[in-house]
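User: My collaborator sent over this chain with a note saying "see what the structure looks like." That's all I know about it. Can you take a look?
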Amino acid sequence: MNNKVKRFLPQLLTVLFVVLVFGFFTINAQTNMDNRGIDFGFSFLKQEASFDMQFTLLDYDGQDSYLWAYVVALLNTLLVSFLGIIFCTILGVIIGVARLSTNFLIKNAAAWYVEFFRNIPLLLQIFFWYYAALRALPLPENAEPWFGVTYMTIKGYYIPAMIWNNLNIFVYCILASIISIMFIRNYAKRLQENEGKQLPVLYISLAILLILPGLSFLIGGVSLNFEVPVLKQLAKTSYIYEGGVGLPPELIALVLALSLYTSTFVAECVRAGIQGISKGQKEAAASVGLTPSQVLKLVIMPQALRIIIPPTTNQYLNLTKNSSLAAAIAYPDLVLVFAGTALMQTGKAIEIVGITMLTYLTISLLIAALMNWYNKKIEIKEK
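Assistant: Without extra context I'll predict from the sequence alone. Here is the result:
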């Protein structure tokens, strides 16, 4: 038996084993479903859902199909995951850097933050924010305005809604700004590598982001108005805010808990990445006259990112999957709406659970692919 066969045979046997196991469970499930008179199929997705959701990003009512209910619930899940990733990254970077501070108070405060939030189960933190912290807020009729236009109440956080005119022109200007900034960053990088000169990329980028969108208002016909929430009485003791945008307490509690909990792990990834760079790198950078902020920005972080990104990717994936705990406080995410209500109404357990699992798998693979692409992009290449 030659070496090629020896290498190929174990792989072939492994694939055959997986196929046999999958086939066994598939045939077994089909047999049990036939015995119980259960049909397998996805035609139920076209049926009327006959249930409502209290919070949606798209228009939805009970007369829409299960497929549309799935799409709306998926967007709610993606919203929580997106906001959680943004906030946990910001907090994680700040806390991770603070843990390495030479200031005694800042260093220990950051350490206590990490130890406190990461050692309390996430579900309990969700319950705390939802059932304790947010339930202590006033009723709508007793709420005091924040900054004169927003209201934080027991029924949610109400903010002004943006009413745009010629929004497409503003979006084009934003895209043009982003493309311009990318060119500026590439030019600045080449200039620094070839001539050792450094451009103020941050200030140039901020100027571009202000000037181009600003021109869309001045000469592009773009206008922006705000619809402020207004208190309305529905009954003798029932009040609600109309207009604006209402963020339900379930969303606020979920994003807070996920962000605070996951940020502790991101902070440890950041701290480990920075500590993974030798002390000699910092001393060499300081010896040529770089300030501490320049040392961190130009020397430490570009190298530390190679260490930080892989474990941080795992935390992003954990946050996305942990968002399924939203069902515990009745936030209408994919698990509660589709794998919960829709499953109970239709009885299509295998189909619905399979779709839900495949959805989370797809989201996770996309996040991992994006982070792996970014990790590849920023790796230090030898010339």
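A starting point for your reply to your collaborator: The longest strand covers residues 161-165.
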